[in-house]
Amino acid sequence: MADTSDDLALDGNPLDAIGGGASIGYARVSTTEQNLRRQVDALTQAGCIRVFEEKLSGKNAERPELAACLDYLRSGDTLVVLELSRLGRSLADLLSLVSGLRKRGIGFTSLHEALDTTTPGGRLVFHVFAALAEFLRELIAGGTREGLAAARANGVRLGRPPAMSPEQIRHARALLAEPDTTVASIARLLGVSRSTLYKYVPELSTRTLEPELGT
């Protein structure tokens, strides 16, 4: 997620004068409420001159009505939602959307949480959200690095699994002891390629290739 700290600056930002335009609403169904009437009524009462109604839940990556709403908004307008969960699927998604609005000179208001980015208090809340998201991201990254280091210290193999298991390697070496067994036949029996056999059982390279001609 892009850093939103500059976009949500509290003072001295030329976008602090956001406002004065139209209030545009966005409503989206939830898993528990499939009827948008309550949201639309609340947004209309809040002064929205138009409400975009999304009939898809947050599980859908594509939100065509949100895209249309964002395209409709102009500098000075304010996007209004009933609650934060109706706009963003996650904190990162929410911050990204609000940051994009700020860059375009568009305000954002959530009625349920009483947040308004056209005011210093509202911008402060989103500034804290952005800092919290960055802190959590660093915690997760740090925990992942520590977990990988601990796994390596305990002898845990990381990355892709080996092409041949220890049992297959032992089986290949046992077959190698039989003079009439070819590398090709061992590879077919174990379900691996000859190059893989040579990699994991290097002593096979000393065996003559003549018996494998024509295989």
TrEMBL record:
Gene3D superfamilies given in the database record: Homeodomain-like, Resolvase, N-terminal catalytic domain
Residues annotated as catalytic: S30
PROSITE patterns for this protein: RECOMBINASES_1, RECOMBINASES_3
Keywords from the UniProt entry: DNA integration, DNA recombination, DNA-binding
Keyword Signal: no
SMART domains linked to this entry: Resolvase (SM00857)
InterPro entries hit by this protein: Homeodomain-like_sf, Recombinase_CS, Resolv_N, Resolvase-like_N_sf, Resolvase_HTH_dom, SSR_resolvase
Pfam families associated with the record: HTH_7, Resolvase
GO biological process: DNA integration
Similarity annotation: Belongs to the site-specific recombinase resolvase family.
Name of protein: Helix-turn-helix domain-containing protein
Organism: Allosaccharopolyspora coralli
